[in-house]
Design goal:
The structure holds two protein chains of two kinds. By secondary structure, chain A is mostly beta strands. In chain A, 0% of the residues lie in helices and 51% in strands. Chain B is globular, with a radius of gyration of 13 Å. Classes of the chains: A mainly beta, B mainly beta. Chains A and B meet through strand 6, strand 7, strand 11 and strand 12 of A and strand 5, strand 9 and strand 10 of B.
Chain lengths: 113, 120
């Protein structure tokens, strides 16, 4: 199984500042035949289902604000929120979809400083 | 518009059974990879099972042999039969659609979830 490890476990950032969440996979999720990284990011708020933010490691889902961006390749990935807004308070998860079982990171709790 | 609605959760004793349903609208379940993902209280997200469009099924080791994913094409509904339930199966269970059409299986639509509580 591919183990997804996020860092940090929690993060407090001031409004308007940058937030950066890291995700590391225990093996590469990059498929050479199509040069795609099978990595997604989700936002989870209490009482709501997860919301897809980023797929293919760096493609923003339709309707997601452009302050959210994803980067990285192979085994190391980053979710960046360029200017934190109050509504961004949530838990963020990375997930690999290259192999079965699909696996999520443990989550990073993002709060306002 | 795509909608997923889960039903069937509730309180069950250890060793008991439940069947969850996920009614889909706005798309055809059999054309997509459909998964069940759960979140135990205070814990993170855990993928549990997937049914591919072709009918193949896969399970997390934690539920293999106890849970069964299936679908009814005529009802456009995904099911999750859960047997031999344990306390550690207590969680909110979400059905989720994989955006299969571009070759991926990231989850673009989720239901609101249904709570399963296993307790005596």
């Amino acid at each position: 199984d591919i183990v997804m490890t996020q860092s940090p476990d929690s993060l407090a950032v001031s409004l308007g500042e940058r937030a950066t969440i890291n995700c590391k996979s225990s093996q590469s999720v990059l498929y050479s035949y199509n040069s795609k990284n099978y990595l997604a990011w989700y936002q989870k708020k209490p009482g709501q289902p997860p919301k897809l933010l980023i797929y293919w490691a760096s493609t923003r889902e339709s309707g997601v604000p452009d302050r959210f961006s994803g980067s990285g390749s192979g085994t190391d990935f980053t979710l960046t929120i360029s200017s934190l807004q109050a509504e961004d308070v949530a838990v963020y998860y990375c997930q690999q979809y290259s192999t079965i079982p699909r696996t999520f990171g443990q989550g990073t709790k993002l709060e306002i400083k | 518009e795509v909608h997923l609605v889960e039903t069937g959760g509730g309180l069950v004793q250890p060793g008991g059974s439940l069947r969850l349903s996920c009614a889909a609208s706005g798309f055809t379940v059999s054309n997509y990879y459909m998964s069940w993902v759960r979140q135990a209280p205070g814990k993170g997200l855990e993928w549990v099972s997937v049914m591919y469009s072709g009918g193949s099924t896969y399970y997390a080791d934690s539920v293999k042999g106890r849970f069964t994913i299936s679908r009814d094409i005529s009802k456009n509904t995904l099911y999750f039969q859960m047997n031999s339930l344990r306390a550690e199966d207590t969680a909110v269970y979400y059905c989720a659609r994989g955006r299969t059409l571009d070759g991926g299986d990231y989850f673009d639509y989720w239901g609101q979830g249904t709570l399963v509580t296993v307790s005596s």
